[in-house]
Amino acid sequence: MESAELRRLVVRHRHVAPMLSVVLASTDARVTISDLDGEVILDRGVGDPPGDAPVERHAILVDGTVVGWVEGPRPSNAIAAVLSYACAREADKRALAREALDRYRELNLIYDLADDIGATLETDAVARVAVAEAGRLPSGGRGFVRLRGGANGSLDTRPRGDDAEPAVEPGAGILGAILAGDPEIVNDIPADPRATAAERGFASLAAVPLRVRGERLGVIGTISREPLEFHASDLRLLGAIASLAAPTFEQAAVHEAALSPATVATD
């Protein structure tokens, strides 16, 4: 929680400020509330503690993290408890608001992707849309798509001609593990023992496998050379992109195979 938010709770919040006034009214001792940097938010200097009353310092906590301090005699612990509760409630409300916004973004993404992807049956065109959307995650990063190519299970860069980094070795590395397993966030690639030499040139990634009826077609994700902190919400968005792109990739492959010269000649 930022200092400005703690100040708003103490000074202006329509519930917290009156509740704090009631608690302060129970004592005539001096009580000081300050933020994490020591800047005073409230200094109730109406009195001084008796000579034998020790001045206490109590932390204002949110999920175990100190966001401010209350100093004064015995009532200061009750004030710190009140503010810790109020700060936790505000943090919960903000988390719910962020989650609702993430859901709204996911819905918009699904509607937009359905229109864009459904308008083509060319693999590179589908990949271009998917890569663009994967590169728009809230946490940042550059989008990429790798699709199974040859018989050896290699993963090819799509769309063709796009940036081929990170290079993918069949069945190896973090991306190989994601292709064979589950969606993952890796915020410190060099520290991951699975990382290949090519992957260690990057700092962070989030990726999900492209799957259709149990068949794994490839991997879609976002990656960054600079350290980023990807979150579960980023992985959900990638999952939404993958769920729309994967079956379209499959249809595009069938369509392109039907139009290939070898197929026409055989017919």
What does this entry look like structurally?
It is elongated, with a radius of gyration of 27 Å. Helices cover about 45% and strands about 20% of the residues. The chain has helices at about 5-10, 15-25, 75-115, 125-135, 175-180, 230-260, 260-265, and strands at about 30-35, 40-45, 55-60, 65-70, 140-150, 155-160, 185, 205-210, 215-225. The longest helix has about 40 residues, at about 75-115. A 5-stranded antiparallel beta sheet has the order 6-5-9-8-7, with helices on both faces. Strands 2-1-4-3 form a 4-stranded antiparallel beta sheet. The model is unreliable at about 265 (pLDDT under 50). The protein is built from 7 helices and 9 strands, in the order ααββββααββαβββαα. β3 and β4 form a beta hairpin.
Layout of strands and helices, then pairs:
Blueprint: H1 3-11, H2 16-24, E1 31-35, E2 40-44, E3 56-62, E4 65-72, H3 76-117, H4 123-134, E5 142-148, E6 155-158, H5 173-180, E7 184-186, E8 204-212, E9 215-224, H6 232-259, H7 261-266
Antiparallel strand pairs: 1-2, 1-4, 3-4, 5-6, 5-9, 7-8, 8-9
Helix pairs in contact: 2-3, 3-4, 3-6, 4-6
